[in-house]
Amino acid sequence: MKSVELVSLASIVPPLNHEVSGGFNALVDGQQVRVRAVLERTVVIEHHEGGERSVVRKDNCMVKPSAVAFVPGNPNNGVGPRQWRRLPGKPPAPGTPGTPGTPGAPPAPANGK
Fold it and tell me: What is the pTM of this model?
């Protein structure tokens, strides 16, 4: 039987304008787990026995590269699929088009002159 080549989740690079999603299997400390969410440096996993969830470092989470799922989003600004959590009225993230000081945004008023 051929062994599947596993790599550290930290080594997975998502395609442009995408980020790693949860919902795939992985190995942590030799045990099969389900990846529920992928954060900046850590992963929320669910153990098959008992369904207990815990957080581990990405480099301790071994995955089959073809099993990793991606979703549209920008991993550099931390919004993407978690954007729905922003509260109404909260200012947009820095670098959002239309925010003063962002390229393409209208210039800020100059001292009323």
Answer: 0.62
